[in-house]
Specification:
The complex is a heterodimer.
Chain A: H1 7-35, E1 37-38, H2 42-56, H3 66-69, H4 74-90, H5 93-111, H6 115-120, H7 135-162
Helix pairs in contact in A: 1-2, 2-4, 4-5, 5-7
Chain B: H1 13-16, H2 18-29, E1 32-34, H3 35-42, H4 46-58, E2 62-69, E3 72-79, H5 81-103
Antiparallel strand pairs in B: 1-3, 2-3
Classes of the chains: A mainly alpha, B alpha+beta.
Chain lengths: 163, 104
């Protein structure tokens, strides 16, 4: 499962991506009813099935290049693909920029040990424990999402206060 | 020499009216649209919008139903399969008209 990942991690990602899609679907339904324009949410179901297949089935056929799965960050690329599809469906330039940046971070985290960069910057995330050495590979894509989310929240808040 | 049929002959009076065309295009882009949303987007009075919706509903191009969001009553509109086909035919005719006019 997922190349180098353990079964526990695979279960985590299936639940995490499933929960993410469910929360996104809930938000779209609620927001659509509030503004008076609901959009089709069938894409959530389709995305869920595709993501599930990618996580569970694809790696077993070994069609994914080893470099992409050796660090266990393949789910980041699945999330990146989902963000790109959402940006296209929403016709949102801002989300497309976020999705592209996140995709770049996810590819980098999959192909390169980000630890090398942060160590050069003077931070040793291992602290003598090798379990933490992959932390920067997770933090980098996560940071893109957190900063983008905070930015979107700030913009929305400013718009609401201006209205 | 016989005159070739002009593209405007293919325009459907029910669909072509600008407010009804607006209703259909908005409804085609969404799963369902609320009466208030359409009224604001198309800058129509409630009575005017209601009349256009009746025309479209009688023609079987949209489906109208009442629902609630919390305690607020809302009227929702959804385009039917027949409505999508009529809109596609209208857009196709307009495209043909545009092509003919620009190439003349």
């Amino acid at each position: 499962m997922l190349g180098e990942q353990k079964t526990g991690e695979t279960i985590y990602w299936v639940i995490a991506i499933g929960a993410g899609l469910y929360v996104t679907w809930l938000w779209y339904m609620r927001h659509g009813r509030r503004v008076g324009l609901t959009t089709s949410t069938r894409w959530v179901l389709i995305a869920g099935v595709i993501a599930g297949l990618l996580i569970l089935v694809l790696p077993t056929f070994e069609v994914v290049p080893g470099d992409l799965i050796v660090r266990g960050t393949l789910p980041f690329l699945i999330v990146a693909a989902a963000l790109l599809v959402l940006a296209w469906a929403e016709r949102s330039v801002a989300l497309a920029v976020v999705a592209t940046t996140y995709s770049g971070a996810a590819v980098l985290a999959s192909l390169y040990d980000v630890e090398n960069i942060v160590m050069r910057l003077g931070w040793n995330p291992s602290f003598g424990d090798m379990r933490f050495s992959t932390l920067p590979n997770i933090l980098l894509p996560a940071l893109v999402l957190l900063v983008s989310g905070a930015g979107a929240y700030a913009v929305q808040r400013r718009r609401r206060s201006a209205a | 020499m016989t005159a070739q049929a002009h593209p405007t002959n293919g325009l459907d009076e029910i669909v072509h009216q600008r407010h009804r065309l607006g209703i259909l295009t908005i409804a085609a882009e969404a799963d369902s649209a609320d009466f208030g949303y359409l009224r604001e987007a198309l800058d129509l009075t409630p009575g005017n919008l209601s009349r256009h919706l009746t025309v479209l509903e009688d023609a079987g191009l949209v489906q109208v139903w009442k629902g609630y969001v919390g305690k607020r009553p809302r009227t929702w509109i959804r385009i039917t399969g027949q409505g999508r086909a009529a809109l596609a035919a209208e857009i196709s005719t307009l495209t043909e008209l545009l092509r003919r006019h620009q190439s003349s």
